[in-house]
Write a structure and sequence with these properties.
- There is one protein chain.
- By secondary structure, the protein is mainly beta.
- The protein has one domain: membrane protein fhac: a member of the omp85/tpsb transporter family (Porin, Beta Barrel), CATH 2.40.160.50.
- The protein contains three helices and 18 strands.
- The strands form two sheets. The chain has a 16-stranded antiparallel β-sheet. Strands 12-13 form a two-stranded antiparallel sheet.
- Strand 12 and strand 13 form a beta hairpin.
- The longest helix is centred in the N-terminal third of the chain and has 12 residues.
Length: about 375
Protein backbone atom coordinates (compact mmCIF):
# COMPACT_ATOMS: atom_id res chain seq x y z
CA UNK A 1 0.00 0.00 0.00
CA UNK A 2 2.78 2.46 0.95
CA UNK A 3 4.70 1.70 -2.25
CA UNK A 4 1.58 2.20 -4.34
CA UNK A 5 0.84 5.54 -2.72
CA UNK A 6 4.42 6.75 -3.09
CA UNK A 7 4.76 5.75 -6.71
CA UNK A 8 1.37 6.48 -8.26
CA UNK A 9 1.69 10.23 -8.74
CA UNK A 10 5.39 10.32 -9.72
CA UNK A 11 4.82 7.57 -12.34
CA UNK A 12 2.16 9.63 -14.06
CA UNK A 13 4.37 12.68 -13.93
CA UNK A 14 7.23 10.96 -15.75
CA UNK A 15 5.31 11.21 -19.02
CA UNK A 16 5.19 15.01 -18.91
CA UNK A 17 7.70 16.93 -21.01
CA UNK A 18 10.53 18.08 -18.76
CA UNK A 19 10.93 21.39 -20.57
CA UNK A 20 7.47 22.52 -19.47
CA UNK A 21 8.41 22.38 -15.80
CA UNK A 22 5.08 20.82 -14.92
CA UNK A 23 4.33 20.79 -11.19
CA UNK A 24 2.66 17.86 -9.43
CA UNK A 25 2.06 17.02 -5.79
CA UNK A 26 2.29 13.83 -3.73
CA UNK A 27 0.87 13.01 -0.31
CA UNK A 28 1.38 9.77 1.59
CA UNK A 29 1.75 8.37 5.12
CA UNK A 30 4.70 6.47 6.54
CA UNK A 31 4.90 3.94 9.37
CA UNK A 32 8.29 2.49 10.20
CA UNK A 33 10.51 1.23 13.03
CA UNK A 34 14.01 1.94 14.31
CA UNK A 35 15.89 0.43 17.23
CA UNK A 36 16.63 3.90 18.61
CA UNK A 37 13.17 5.53 18.47
CA UNK A 38 10.69 2.67 18.18
CA UNK A 39 7.76 3.09 15.79
CA UNK A 40 7.34 6.28 13.79
CA UNK A 41 4.10 7.64 12.38
CA UNK A 42 4.82 10.26 9.74
CA UNK A 43 3.39 12.05 6.75
CA UNK A 44 4.99 13.45 3.62
CA UNK A 45 3.77 16.08 1.16
CA UNK A 46 5.71 17.53 -1.72
CA UNK A 47 5.12 19.77 -4.71
CA UNK A 48 7.68 19.06 -7.39
CA UNK A 49 8.64 19.64 -11.00
CA UNK A 50 9.51 16.15 -12.32
CA UNK A 51 12.48 15.45 -14.55
CA UNK A 52 10.73 12.87 -16.75
CA UNK A 53 13.04 10.51 -18.62
CA UNK A 54 15.75 13.09 -19.24
CA UNK A 55 19.27 11.70 -19.01
CA UNK A 56 20.20 13.84 -16.04
CA UNK A 57 21.30 12.86 -12.51
CA UNK A 58 19.03 15.18 -10.50
CA UNK A 59 15.84 13.70 -8.98
CA UNK A 60 13.66 16.69 -10.00
CA UNK A 61 13.99 20.16 -11.47
CA UNK A 62 12.74 21.52 -8.14
CA UNK A 63 10.77 20.38 -5.12
CA UNK A 64 9.19 21.76 -1.97
CA UNK A 65 8.57 19.10 0.68
CA UNK A 66 6.89 19.09 4.07
CA UNK A 67 7.61 16.18 6.44
CA UNK A 68 6.19 15.63 9.91
CA UNK A 69 6.51 12.65 12.22
CA UNK A 70 6.60 11.47 15.81
CA UNK A 71 7.86 8.30 17.46
CA UNK A 72 6.61 6.15 20.30
CA UNK A 73 9.70 7.12 22.35
CA UNK A 74 9.08 10.85 22.24
CA UNK A 75 11.15 11.91 19.24
CA UNK A 76 9.67 14.14 16.55
CA UNK A 77 10.76 15.77 13.31
CA UNK A 78 9.21 18.59 11.29
CA UNK A 79 10.88 20.00 8.21
CA UNK A 80 10.14 22.26 5.27
CA UNK A 81 12.66 21.61 2.53
CA UNK A 82 12.92 23.54 -0.75
CA UNK A 83 15.44 22.26 -3.30
CA UNK A 84 16.08 23.45 -6.84
CA UNK A 85 18.91 21.26 -8.20
CA UNK A 86 18.18 21.89 -11.89
CA UNK A 87 15.53 24.60 -12.22
CA UNK A 88 18.08 27.22 -13.29
CA UNK A 89 20.86 25.95 -15.53
CA UNK A 90 24.16 25.74 -13.67
CA UNK A 91 22.71 26.60 -10.27
CA UNK A 92 21.57 24.56 -7.26
CA UNK A 93 19.66 26.21 -4.43
CA UNK A 94 18.48 24.69 -1.18
CA UNK A 95 16.65 26.05 1.88
CA UNK A 96 15.67 23.89 4.84
CA UNK A 97 13.74 24.80 7.99
CA UNK A 98 13.63 22.12 10.67
CA UNK A 99 12.39 21.43 14.18
CA UNK A 100 13.51 18.09 15.63
CA UNK A 101 13.84 16.28 18.91
CA UNK A 102 15.98 13.15 19.23
CA UNK A 103 14.55 11.89 22.51
CA UNK A 104 16.82 8.84 22.79
CA UNK A 105 20.08 10.15 21.35
CA UNK A 106 23.11 8.26 22.53
CA UNK A 107 25.67 9.83 24.83
CA UNK A 108 28.39 7.49 26.13
CA UNK A 109 30.93 10.15 27.06
CA UNK A 110 33.57 11.86 24.93
CA UNK A 111 36.48 10.22 23.16
CA UNK A 112 37.17 7.16 21.07
CA UNK A 113 37.70 4.81 24.03
CA UNK A 114 34.40 5.24 25.88
CA UNK A 115 32.97 1.95 27.11
CA UNK A 116 29.53 0.43 27.10
CA UNK A 117 28.48 -1.73 30.05
CA UNK A 118 25.09 -3.36 29.62
CA UNK A 119 24.75 -3.78 33.38
CA UNK A 120 24.82 0.02 33.77
CA UNK A 121 21.40 0.22 32.11
CA UNK A 122 19.68 -2.13 34.58
CA UNK A 123 18.23 -1.32 37.95
CA UNK A 124 16.12 1.60 39.19
CA UNK A 125 17.06 4.97 37.72
CA UNK A 126 19.46 3.58 35.11
CA UNK A 127 17.17 3.03 32.11
CA UNK A 128 18.60 6.06 30.30
CA UNK A 129 22.19 5.81 31.48
CA UNK A 130 23.55 6.21 27.93
CA UNK A 131 20.79 8.47 26.60
CA UNK A 132 19.99 12.17 26.36
CA UNK A 133 17.25 14.18 24.68
CA UNK A 134 18.41 16.74 22.11
CA UNK A 135 16.20 19.42 20.54
CA UNK A 136 17.33 21.35 17.49
CA UNK A 137 15.71 24.24 15.61
CA UNK A 138 17.46 25.39 12.47
CA UNK A 139 17.45 27.13 9.12
CA UNK A 140 20.00 26.24 6.43
CA UNK A 141 20.69 27.85 3.05
CA UNK A 142 23.06 26.50 0.37
CA UNK A 143 23.84 27.85 -3.10
CA UNK A 144 25.96 25.92 -5.58
CA UNK A 145 27.27 27.08 -8.94
CA UNK A 146 28.66 24.81 -11.65
CA UNK A 147 32.17 25.81 -12.71
CA UNK A 148 32.91 23.20 -15.37
CA UNK A 149 31.48 19.73 -15.98
CA UNK A 150 30.72 18.03 -12.65
CA UNK A 151 32.65 20.59 -10.56
CA UNK A 152 30.69 23.07 -8.43
CA UNK A 153 31.44 25.64 -5.77
CA UNK A 154 29.25 26.00 -2.69
CA UNK A 155 28.50 28.83 -0.30
CA UNK A 156 25.91 28.83 2.44
CA UNK A 157 25.06 29.36 6.04
CA UNK A 158 22.81 28.22 8.85
CA UNK A 159 21.25 29.40 12.09
CA UNK A 160 20.72 26.77 14.75
CA UNK A 161 19.54 26.48 18.34
CA UNK A 162 20.48 23.28 20.20
CA UNK A 163 19.41 22.26 23.68
CA UNK A 164 19.74 19.07 25.70
CA UNK A 165 17.43 17.61 28.33
CA UNK A 166 18.50 14.96 30.79
CA UNK A 167 16.18 11.96 30.91
CA UNK A 168 14.95 10.58 34.26
CA UNK A 169 17.53 8.89 36.45
CA UNK A 170 21.31 8.81 36.35
CA UNK A 171 23.16 9.23 33.04
CA UNK A 172 26.64 9.74 31.59
CA UNK A 173 25.47 13.10 30.25
CA UNK A 174 24.50 14.19 33.76
CA UNK A 175 27.88 13.10 35.14
CA UNK A 176 29.77 15.02 32.44
CA UNK A 177 27.68 18.12 33.03
CA UNK A 178 28.31 18.08 36.77
CA UNK A 179 32.04 17.43 36.22
CA UNK A 180 32.28 20.37 33.82
CA UNK A 181 33.15 18.24 30.78
CA UNK A 182 30.04 19.75 29.22
CA UNK A 183 30.21 23.45 29.99
CA UNK A 184 27.31 25.81 30.74
CA UNK A 185 27.89 27.58 27.41
CA UNK A 186 26.86 24.35 25.63
CA UNK A 187 23.41 24.26 27.25
CA UNK A 188 21.70 25.67 25.28
CA UNK A 189 23.82 26.75 22.32
CA UNK A 190 22.96 29.21 19.55
CA UNK A 191 25.10 28.94 16.46
CA UNK A 192 25.47 30.96 13.27
CA UNK A 193 27.58 29.13 10.68
CA UNK A 194 29.03 30.22 7.35
CA UNK A 195 30.40 27.57 4.98
CA UNK A 196 32.09 27.29 1.61
CA UNK A 197 33.54 24.48 -0.43
CA UNK A 198 33.87 22.60 -3.69
CA UNK A 199 31.85 19.60 -4.85
CA UNK A 200 32.71 17.14 -7.64
CA UNK A 201 29.75 14.96 -8.63
CA UNK A 202 29.82 12.62 -11.64
CA UNK A 203 27.16 10.17 -10.39
CA UNK A 204 24.78 8.95 -13.09
CA UNK A 205 21.82 9.38 -10.72
CA UNK A 206 21.87 11.16 -7.37
CA UNK A 207 19.21 9.17 -5.49
CA UNK A 208 20.38 5.69 -6.55
CA UNK A 209 23.75 5.87 -8.33
CA UNK A 210 25.09 2.96 -10.37
CA UNK A 211 28.42 4.56 -11.28
CA UNK A 212 30.39 7.72 -10.75
CA UNK A 213 32.37 9.67 -8.16
CA UNK A 214 31.26 12.13 -5.50
CA UNK A 215 33.84 14.24 -3.65
CA UNK A 216 33.56 17.32 -1.47
CA UNK A 217 35.82 19.60 0.54
CA UNK A 218 34.10 22.00 2.93
CA UNK A 219 35.16 24.63 5.44
CA UNK A 220 32.69 26.14 7.91
CA UNK A 221 33.01 28.53 10.79
CA UNK A 222 30.65 28.67 13.73
CA UNK A 223 30.59 30.35 17.14
CA UNK A 224 34.07 29.71 18.52
CA UNK A 225 35.14 26.90 16.19
CA UNK A 226 36.13 26.00 12.64
CA UNK A 227 35.19 22.75 10.89
CA UNK A 228 37.06 21.26 7.89
CA UNK A 229 35.53 18.26 6.13
CA UNK A 230 36.52 16.09 3.19
CA UNK A 231 34.75 13.08 1.69
CA UNK A 232 35.17 10.75 -1.29
CA UNK A 233 32.62 8.20 -2.52
CA UNK A 234 32.91 5.90 -5.52
CA UNK A 235 30.31 3.81 -7.36
CA UNK A 236 31.21 1.00 -9.80
CA UNK A 237 28.92 -1.21 -11.90
CA UNK A 238 31.09 -4.25 -12.79
CA UNK A 239 28.18 -6.63 -13.55
CA UNK A 240 24.68 -5.98 -14.86
CA UNK A 241 22.97 -6.33 -11.49
CA UNK A 242 25.88 -5.58 -9.16
CA UNK A 243 26.88 -2.15 -7.86
CA UNK A 244 29.93 -1.83 -5.60
CA UNK A 245 30.43 1.34 -3.56
CA UNK A 246 32.98 2.70 -1.15
CA UNK A 247 33.62 5.84 0.84
CA UNK A 248 36.09 7.59 3.09
CA UNK A 249 35.50 10.84 4.97
CA UNK A 250 37.32 12.85 7.61
CA UNK A 251 36.61 15.96 9.65
CA UNK A 252 38.68 18.18 11.92
CA UNK A 253 37.21 20.74 14.32
CA UNK A 254 39.44 23.37 15.92
CA UNK A 255 38.74 26.01 18.55
CA UNK A 256 36.08 25.22 21.15
CA UNK A 257 33.27 23.35 19.40
CA UNK A 258 30.19 22.78 21.57
CA UNK A 259 28.95 19.27 22.23
CA UNK A 260 26.01 19.81 19.87
CA UNK A 261 28.36 20.51 16.95
CA UNK A 262 30.65 17.59 17.82
CA UNK A 263 27.70 15.19 17.52
CA UNK A 264 27.34 15.93 13.80
CA UNK A 265 29.46 15.77 10.67
CA UNK A 266 29.14 18.27 7.84
CA UNK A 267 28.16 17.39 4.27
CA UNK A 268 27.05 19.52 1.34
CA UNK A 269 23.60 17.91 1.70
CA UNK A 270 23.30 18.77 5.40
CA UNK A 271 24.67 17.60 8.77
CA UNK A 272 24.55 13.93 9.76
CA UNK A 273 24.82 12.32 13.20
CA UNK A 274 28.36 11.06 13.73
CA UNK A 275 29.88 8.91 14.91
CA UNK A 276 27.32 6.14 15.07
CA UNK A 277 24.07 5.71 13.20
CA UNK A 278 22.81 5.12 9.68
CA UNK A 279 24.75 7.89 7.92
CA UNK A 280 28.13 7.31 9.62
CA UNK A 281 28.64 3.97 11.43
CA UNK A 282 25.79 1.52 11.04
CA UNK A 283 25.53 -1.17 13.71
CA UNK A 284 26.29 1.34 16.48
CA UNK A 285 23.86 3.53 18.37
CA UNK A 286 23.26 7.09 17.14
CA UNK A 287 25.94 9.36 18.59
CA UNK A 288 27.93 6.45 20.03
CA UNK A 289 31.34 8.18 19.79
CA UNK A 290 31.88 11.91 20.25
CA UNK A 291 34.94 13.97 19.39
CA UNK A 292 36.06 17.02 17.40
CA UNK A 293 37.86 14.79 14.88
CA UNK A 294 36.21 12.02 12.86
CA UNK A 295 37.28 9.37 10.38
CA UNK A 296 34.84 7.02 8.64
CA UNK A 297 35.07 4.54 5.78
CA UNK A 298 33.11 1.69 4.30
CA UNK A 299 32.41 -0.73 1.49
CA UNK A 300 29.02 -1.86 0.22
CA UNK A 301 27.76 -4.31 -2.43
CA UNK A 302 24.24 -3.95 -3.88
CA UNK A 303 22.72 -6.73 -6.01
CA UNK A 304 19.48 -6.41 -7.97
CA UNK A 305 17.08 -9.32 -7.48
CA UNK A 306 14.39 -7.46 -9.42
CA UNK A 307 15.91 -5.49 -12.25
CA UNK A 308 14.04 -3.04 -14.45
CA UNK A 309 16.67 -0.26 -14.43
CA UNK A 310 15.36 3.17 -13.50
CA UNK A 311 11.79 1.87 -13.27
CA UNK A 312 11.88 -0.63 -10.39
CA UNK A 313 14.95 -2.12 -8.76
CA UNK A 314 14.83 -4.34 -5.66
CA UNK A 315 18.32 -4.82 -4.25
CA UNK A 316 19.90 -6.86 -1.51
CA UNK A 317 22.92 -5.14 -0.01
CA UNK A 318 25.72 -5.97 2.40
CA UNK A 319 28.09 -3.49 4.03
CA UNK A 320 31.17 -3.03 6.14
CA UNK A 321 31.55 0.25 8.05
CA UNK A 322 34.47 1.46 10.16
CA UNK A 323 35.30 4.67 11.96
CA UNK A 324 36.70 6.44 14.98
CA UNK A 325 36.87 9.86 16.62
CA UNK A 326 39.84 11.93 17.72
CA UNK A 327 39.97 13.98 20.89
CA UNK A 328 40.85 17.68 21.39
CA UNK A 329 44.38 18.42 20.21
CA UNK A 330 44.65 15.22 18.15
CA UNK A 331 45.21 15.49 14.42
CA UNK A 332 42.85 13.50 12.25
CA UNK A 333 44.83 10.94 10.25
CA UNK A 334 44.40 7.79 8.23
CA UNK A 335 44.95 4.90 10.61
CA UNK A 336 43.77 1.39 11.41
CA UNK A 337 44.30 1.90 15.13
CA UNK A 338 41.23 2.38 17.28
CA UNK A 339 38.74 1.73 14.48
CA UNK A 340 35.25 0.56 15.42
CA UNK A 341 33.66 -1.63 12.76
CA UNK A 342 30.32 -3.19 11.90
CA UNK A 343 28.82 -5.59 9.36
CA UNK A 344 25.27 -5.72 8.10
CA UNK A 345 22.87 -5.74 5.22
CA UNK A 346 19.35 -5.06 4.09
CA UNK A 347 16.85 -4.61 1.29
CA UNK A 348 16.35 -1.52 -0.86
CA UNK A 349 13.61 -0.60 -3.34
CA UNK A 350 14.38 2.08 -5.93
CA UNK A 351 11.52 3.45 -8.04
CA UNK A 352 12.06 5.76 -10.99
CA UNK A 353 14.69 8.45 -10.39
CA UNK A 354 13.50 9.96 -7.14
CA UNK A 355 12.21 7.33 -4.69
CA UNK A 356 14.28 5.00 -2.53
CA UNK A 357 13.29 2.96 0.52
CA UNK A 358 15.73 0.84 2.55
CA UNK A 359 15.44 -1.48 5.54
CA UNK A 360 18.69 -2.56 7.14
CA UNK A 361 20.32 -4.19 10.13
CA UNK A 362 23.90 -3.85 11.33
CA UNK A 363 25.95 -5.38 14.12
CA UNK A 364 28.98 -3.93 15.86
CA UNK A 365 30.60 -5.07 19.09
CA UNK A 366 27.75 -3.78 21.28
CA UNK A 367 24.71 -5.42 19.72
CA UNK A 368 22.61 -4.84 16.63
CA UNK A 369 20.71 -1.87 15.23
CA UNK A 370 17.78 -1.93 12.79
CA UNK A 371 16.13 0.91 10.93
CA UNK A 372 14.30 2.25 7.87
CA UNK A 373 15.54 5.07 5.65
CA UNK A 374 14.56 6.89 2.46
CA UNK A 375 18.15 7.31 1.28
CA UNK A 376 21.33 5.28 0.98
CA UNK A 377 23.83 5.67 3.80
CA UNK A 378 26.10 7.19 1.13
Amino acid sequence: MLVALAVASPLAAQTEPAANHTWVDHLYPLIYYSTVDGFWLAGHYDWSSPMGFSERPEPTFARVALDAGASTKGSYAFSLDAQAPAYWDGWRLGLTLSLTRANRLGYFGQGNGTTYDRDSTTGPGHSYFYRVSRRTHGARLAVQRRIVGPLRVLVGGSLEHTDFRELPGESVFQRDRIAGVIGPDDLPFNDAVGRAGVVFDSRDLEVDPHRGVFAEALVSRGHGYTRTTGALRGYAHPLERLIVTGRIAAEQMTGNPPIGAQLTMETSEGPVVALGGYRSLRGYYDGRFVGPGKLIGGLEARYGVMWAPRLLEVKLFAFYDAGRVFGPGESVRLTRQGLHSALGGGVAVAMLRNTLLTVFGGKGTEGAQFSFAATWSY
